Amino acid sequence: MKEVQLLGATGSIGTQTVDIIEEFPHDFRLTAVSARDSVSKIVEIGKRHDLDTIVMAAKHRSTIEKALPETTFISLEEGGLETVARDGRDAVLVNALVGSAGLTPTLAAVESGKDVLLANKESLVVGGELIKKAMKKTEARIIPIDSEHSALAEILAGNRIEDVEKLVITASGGSLRHLGKDELAAVTPKDALKHPNWQMGAKITIDSATMMNKVFEVIEAHHLFDIPYERIEAILHKESVVHALVHFKDGNVHAHMGAADMHIPILTALQGEERKPYRSLFDLARMGTLHFDPIDHERYPLFDLGLAVAKRGGLHTVTLNAANEAAVGLFLAEKISFNEIETLIKKALDHFQNDNHLTLKKILAHDQKVRKFIEDIVKQKVKTK
Amino acid sequence: MKEVQLLGATGSIGTQTVDIIEEFPHDFRLTAVSARDSVSKIVEIGKRHDLDTIVMAAKHRSTIEKALPETTFISLEEGGLETVARDGRDAVLVNALVGSAGLTPTLAAVESGKDVLLANKESLVVGGELIKKAMKKTEARIIPIDSEHSALAEILAGNRIEDVEKLVITASGGSLRHLGKDELAAVTPKDALKHPNWQMGAKITIDSATMMNKVFEVIEAHHLFDIPYERIEAILHKESVVHALVHFKDGNVHAHMGAADMHIPILTALQGEERKPYRSLFDLARMGTLHFDPIDHERYPLFDLGLAVAKRGGLHTVTLNAANEAAVGLFLAEKISFNEIETLIKKALDHFQNDNHLTLKKILAHDQKVRKFIEDIVKQKVKTK
Known about the structure:
Oligomer: homodimer
CATH topology of the largest domain in chain A: Rna Polymerase Sigma Factor, Chain: A
Strand content of chain A: 15-25%
Distance between the termini of chain A: 59 Å
CATH superfamily of the largest domain in chain A: RNA polymerase sigma factor, region 2, helix turn helix motif
Helix content of chain A: 40-55%
Largest sheet of chain A: 7 strands, parallel
Mean pLDDT of chain A: 95
Number of strands of chain A: 13
Low-confidence stretches of chain A: none
Order of helices and strands of chain A: EHEHEHEHEHEHEHEHHHEEEHHEEHHHH
Number of helices of chain A: 16
Structural class of chain A: alpha/beta
Largest interface: A-B, 48 and 48 residues
Number of domains of chain A: 2
């Protein structure tokens, strides 16, 4: 019986993780969950599972303690995510948080020797070097839940990274791919949230439309598989049927395919070595036609910009991520246009210096500083209108 | 240094095997070759390699012994193929012969404990059960050179066959795929030999056009990977970019892709565990569009017929293969029409009884009997015209 702690239990990945745990009740036990404010969803989960711990915003303490008196409540404000991540050494931690908020618990879990099943790619984007250092000390592992990285891990199993010529991940092109660059200015959050292939959270759906998501995935692949950026490539594939490819140096090319269903990478991460029987609706012969194209760098300027930042590394990667998180939040709140996401990220990168000596404290402080910088620009603009 | 014996050295696979051996002169040494009549090609190979043995038709003895006095000549007539297969226990045997003629040396090699790198799929089609029995005794392995099976072996490495839901191999549809069933009657050997994707020998190119090749490949996969016929599928894929897929029971689907270049499966079989650097020109983003479809069973009636025979097993599989070899030979010699390949195979299957107790002797005798049956029908028909 594998104990599972789940941070971000009520989001898209969190909900599907609960599905998998409930599909295999003899294999997995849910011991801890977190969510910011989704009280009724957490209470429902708590009634179905024998939870040890619930982490939520402090204001929900009395409601939760009343509904689930057997379960320990720890607030986000008193560091509940980190406490859970450091506790329960026999458990695995599923990190399904959104954004750089995922870094602290990822690092805490790895430092305490716990395997992290990672859907929160921003952990690796902003703290990749720190996490890698901690992994070396404790031998904790990061197991990807991201579909492309789950695919790569599947293919690479049993192979040596020296035998890899390159890794290729596919990009759908996102919800606005049918629009030309000049048509993007008028796009609303509602337009941008209609992803053609995947049902995902709001933030990642926007990141997918700007191709920033693919930048993050390249960074994630770089850290997860210890492979230089020069040997990671992204290509357009609008059907999202092929998730990733590995070109081996002898000319063999392996690919991973499947339905656009995150339950499969979640199960893959949870099950470990032994494959469990799960639904499989994939039928390539019924797919008909699959399309592949190089990425259009003019149409997706953030892809090149982001990769250039990633290759330099250091604090600029934190700037990139924080500016993106702040800008995407402002776009979703209808405070800025779609194209301003790019403009604001560029402004932040121009404004802040790089720094290659990173600590967790420095990363978290810089993250806040960049967000404030972006928000101030937008407030200023609103005032001057 | 791995010693390599090569049967069928001057055919399509044979020539490409020599290419690979010459590309890696420090890893492989060619010790024996066979060919029926291609004297000048064999002399060329003999001058470039330090061969121990050459096997050819007896009539070429004096020419070969004059040109290559250091090399032992054994004729086909005195059982040269089998002698080579039983000799040189440290070598591997590449069997690139065409047709059921490949069975005797495959079996001899396996019986003497030697690994066989098998391009001759007919060995497994007609003698699968015998070969499997011998493999259990000596622990010799069959390593596939066929592109689809090389692909499957690549994907399956490190996985358990119990975790496989199904294997899928792709079929290009062959050289006549653009023609409707009613247009096939008038097809000439020249039309049928223009394969759209692969440069292959004549016999396999016709088998590819009738889809008999895919029947043979399903049988081959069944024997190679110990998997029931019910869990092997073939689908149409006209670009031949995806060679095979494995559906695992947990929903993960792995595929093998690559250029239509037999050098890669040949290298894969020869190199063993360690991947050697080789050319890799594959670029999925430049492929543009890939098509997948279910097999049209009306268009390719031999596919269902052949599979039904395969599932029953026994001597009927030998009838199927021998009738096919004879009929394809007659078509290539312009003695029969393309559609008569199917008619003649059906006649043979109707005429001969099945028998589930196979021995090598019985298989070889039956093979001859079926060929004669087919040839007699055609002679008879010519007479009555």
